[in-house]
Amino acid sequence: MIDRSAIDTLRADFRLRLAAATTDRDLKALDDAFLSRRSGSVTALLKQVASGPPEERREFGRLVNALKTEIESALDGKRAAIASTRPPAGAVDVTLASRQIPMGRIHPLMRVRQEVEDIFVRMGYEILEGPEVEDDYHNFEALNMPPDHPARDMQDTLYLGVPIPGGIWGAHRGRVPEAQVRTATLLRTHTSAMQIRYMKTFPPPIRLIVPGRVYRRDNLDLSHTPMFQQFEGLVVGRGVTLADLKGTFEAMVRELFGDVKVRLRPSFFPYTEPSAEVDITCQSCGGAGCGTCKHTGWLEILGSGMVHPAVFEAVGYDADEVTGFAFGMGMERVAMLKYGVDDIRLFYENDVRFLEQFPL
Amino acid sequence: MKVLLSWLREFVDAPDTTEDIARLMSMRGFAVEAIEPFGDGDTVIDFEVTANRPDCMSVLGIAREVAAAYRVKLRTRGASPVAASAKAPASLAETARRRGSPHGPKGSAPESLDIVIESPILCPRYVGAVADVEVGPSPAWMQTRLQAAGLRPINNIVDVTNYVMVEMGQPMHAFDHARLAGAQIRVRPARAGEALRTLDGQLRTLSPEMLAIADAERATAIAGVMGGGDSEVTPATKTIVLESAYFNPLSVRRTSKKLGLKTEASMRFERGADPGLPAAAMARALDLIETTGAGHGRGRVIDRYPRNIKSVVLRLRREKIAGLLGGAIPDRDVRRILERLGFTLDPASGGWRVVVPTRRVDVTREVDLIEEVARHYGFDRLPTTFPALTAAAPPLDPRITCARHLRALLTTAGFFEAVTFGFIPERAAAPFAADGDLVPIANPLSELFAVLRPSLLPGLVDVVAHNRRREQRDVRLFEIGARFTRSGGERQSLACVWTGAAAPEHWSGTGRPVDFFDAKAVVERVGQALGAEIQTTPAREPWLAAGRSAAVVANHARVGVVGQLADALVDAHGLPGSEPVYAAELDLDALALAAGRVVRVEPLPRYPSVTRDISILIGDTLPADDVRRTIREAAPPTLVRVAEFDRYQGKGIPPDKVSLSLRLTFRASDRTLTDAEVQAAMDSVLSALREKHGAVQR
Ligand SMILES: [Zn+2]
């Protein structure tokens, strides 16, 4: 008597063990356990066939052989499945750390500078650099600040211990700019000195941006450094108005800060009349009022005004024929507002951990 | 200017909250620095008064602006709260009318005062008066108001002078009559070396360009700056001389600067007081002395006004208003605004003829009037337009394009851009400039900012040190900016520093520290980018390590240096000497002259090239440059490239020799080179190397 249930038991046992097999070694063990010529359990069943009653032999042999075929093909299938999960020859672990391509960063102040330059280039401005060492005439006198003018107190000046040759500017414009011949005696307190040099060299119309470093006798603190970066803007021509100045700032501020409001507040600079400070909506509170904006909802970003007739007279322009506007903006101020920096000294410490927070 | 709200309200009814007043006034040019509660339900508003508006350094001045801003009436009569003391003060106009008439109770003694102005240019007007007083504390309300304005109450006489200054803007001074020799006021230049002990207790030496208020014998005050201690009003003082004058702004400013002495008075005089005010202020002071019970005026008020300062008269044209502001402003607004501010307008062709009040020292041109109109009309009500483009923009400054180019190049090479100060300590600068070539700052803030930088490197090395102290082992930095020397003036420069690994650490292999050839590659790349061919030649710099420093040459001109920083320098900046720091600095002005290659495309080669490698034994101090030069000179023009690919010293090589391997590439533009041709070229190259350098082929 042959026990047919033994076939079903073996099949169930095989299926269970096959499901648990994950390696080639597991499969080899299964192969041995079921199909080995000497000790395989299926082989043992086949041996029983001969000893069974003849009327059952044929049918029983067929069933055992079917089981054998099933096990063989299942093992082959699983073997192929395991092989397909193995990496191909020459494969790498793509999750390993990459070989870094070192990447530096443009300084945030220079990012701002390039951004502002681009804005004004699109508006048709010339961008020019001027010398950092200056003389009294260009930095003060021609800007309507004669010696002993009280407004000179507004900017505490650093003077040179010895006069030195001034810097070169505008060499690409093909002339010898008048200003180069003078000897420098001080560090410019503002980029406005270039207004004079430029107007003495070139006739109107003018659309000019002068970015650069300026110096004041200020101690280092949260919002002051003895050197900082400024933009000078100058537009001169027939019929240039205060309304044009407003429009220009609105366009610039929109590009720099997005959708914010701009307002002009009357102020005083000796070289502009009327003069105005320009405020934008406070970035921290959106205009509702907060500590940053002294609860006004506004933050000052630049000083501006219509070019004073005395300045036109100093450079030999006819103040009755042309008008113009000028402005000066601090790059640190813009960068602080734009990037949420609350200590100006961070810009001059150049801590790599600070610098690398800016995208390239 | 700290203004007590209740004091302000005596002159003007501003129908608004304190915050709204502050908001509106800041839109009229008086930014508000602070609003602070004061005393019993009162408020102090601190207005920022710009340097051109000395007329607003007073409660009345601010009140006038508030009245114009709110279009309300200005009361010029200051109704001081003398409530407790019986008498209400007379109006200013009333007392001013009494000027010149005997002042004080009938039957008082004559004034017994003589005023002589010796320098009418420096003192165009001097108003003096005598009063008999009983010195004591001033009334509480007066003390409170002075304190609100930031002044310390002293006594009833000094307080009255300060009160008038804060209220009307006229600085005043009181002398002890008994201490004035000869009962005389002489306004004269100080004598050389004349000494005076000022009210602050300092003994000051005067000089002849300073204006003194003197008695018959000596200086008793520095005009417009500070009184003298000797003639100070004390509790013992019985009779005073009051001064209400107008002094030349420039003279007061120079004196104040020279003495380093800034006072409430000098700040007002140097910006420009109102020459029309001294008499009215004197009347107000005498009134206050009387109404507060401090004393009585005696005799006449003396008004010496040798140089009458006339009102400025200006033309104001409609067309110019619109031309400057970009929009027309209605005539009635022009008139209303200016009249409220105290200007007088008469119609004239195309506009008005405007008389400027003497207190408005800032208004000297038509454009100043236009500013007044725009200010009170409101900048926000002006139209917004865009300036018309009437000419093409000139080309960009090549310096700016160059800087942008370098930034892109160096950041992609792993360098961080730094921005450092233009001035550095002298000892940090010294190695970078010849003796006497440093530019000192005459008035530096501190020793840290003593000289202009002769090089960008000291600042950059400090930044390396800063980052090294913060766990950054590998640091690559660059800066673009100006540097300065006495002989060379201001020059544009690029500096780079590199310390740590040549490439970032990676699991696949061991890193290598940065060396000279990494630094040299940076310099060459900058040259390439700017179109200049870079060579390096051995050079010595005191701040670079001997044997590891080179001059950078472009187009036969020296444009910079590259090398390893000397141990002493690295040490001086607080960096460990064991980690080399490589640095380079290039003069961008010089490099710009050497560069400027025009791009012309050459045809691509049509025939194959042939390469030959050689290895030679040469002296180990022979520069590779010399070897390459010898090869080039000996080879035919078909040699298109020569480059060393191996250098070996050690086993099998004599001690003072080096084995150098070079790869030579030959190519002709019109044919395929034959073996024989190339071999002939190699033969002459090898024989030249033998002859010139004693080279032995290996
Ligand atoms: Zn805010």
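qc> Chain A has a mean pLDDT of 89.
qc> done
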